[in-house]
Amino acid sequence: MRDAAFIKDWIEAVNLSQDGQTPAQPKASGKRGYPSPEPEEMSDVTPTRTKKRKTANAVNEIEDLDHERTPRPLLAHSRTAPSPSPSPTKSSASLRSASLRTSSQASSRASSSRLKLSNLSFVENGVQRQILSGVGTPDLPRPIVDTLKMIQRLERGKQVLSSSLDRTSFKEFLDMNDLDEMAFATNENVGSHLSPDDVDKLQAGAARCFNKDHDEGVWNAEVHQPLLDMVLRRPGSSNLVDFTLCTTAPIIREYLPSHTQEKRVDFCFYIEPNFDSTYKPRIEIFSNSLPEMSVNHTSYRPLRTCPTTVSIETKRPGTDFDGAILQIGVWQSAHWVMLRSLLSRTWKRSSGLSMKEVFSRGWKGIYTNATLAF
Q1: pTM here?
Q2: Domain map of the chain by residue range?
Q3: Where does this protein have compositionally biased stretches of type Low complexity (predicted)?
Q4: Burial 56-80 (b: 16+ CB within 10 A, else e)
């Protein structure tokens, strides 16, 4: 316990300070004269420091929660600035959230393609999807029957190669695939004209795209376009039938099925009118009276006077094949609407457009047809 003299001196010092007779003591020396406050009183004495500690704790809690989800309401209460800059932790969480959304969107696209393909069968000028069971499928057009028989013949290794090829260069190929002389066609216009070197180049390009996990566009440039070029633009061919990349070719609105979004394809075959002197002027006059001055269902300028035939949609391995069928279905449906308008005939609306598919390990063939009512 402090002595009486010390207490008396302390009281006199306080009174003198209040009366202004002596200058105020420095803050530090004044504190030495007071007894230390009890711990439970500390929060009342220093509220500012306590508030800062609470803010720091709140930020730490936010950073911990950001590893799961960014708690935006809590973040707003913990900051006084109207437009706070995102913290690195929030950015990381946003990236993770974006990655999850991308995965979810990729999965939903496949489901969306399947749903849209199903809905396409209910709209006017839509398509009916069917499986092609073979040459015995009812109501098959004769050209499709002939095509299927040719595919079956090729699968058996018959007339795969053109008779104009050098047979000695194919000896190793025949041995590796257990083929005989029946692999060569009797007609030089039947069978493949590709040489073993051509096939090796295509296989190397396909292996490179697969190993590097290239996108569809690279597959088209490295594999699909070179293959089409070797087949349709080989030396000595008539070039009456050609192909083009048509990823930017839009469908003319008048031909698009109702309640359907536009779709595009990668390649299409077309007839080149420049190789028929009598055909070119007639088709140019004819196209002037059609929508977008085009003889096709697309307004793509390079194809306006070149009737299209076969359409090709490519997909890299393991991607959405329902999406590819949807693209072909919408594209071909618009093609048939255009043909109906040109023929000016009465068509069976109940039949619509039939789309049949041929499945194999590495490719999928689709043909479409419509039934005329005479």
Answers
A1: 0.64
A2: 1-31, 47-104, 113-134+237-374
A3: 78-114
A4: eeebeebeeebeeebbeeebeebee
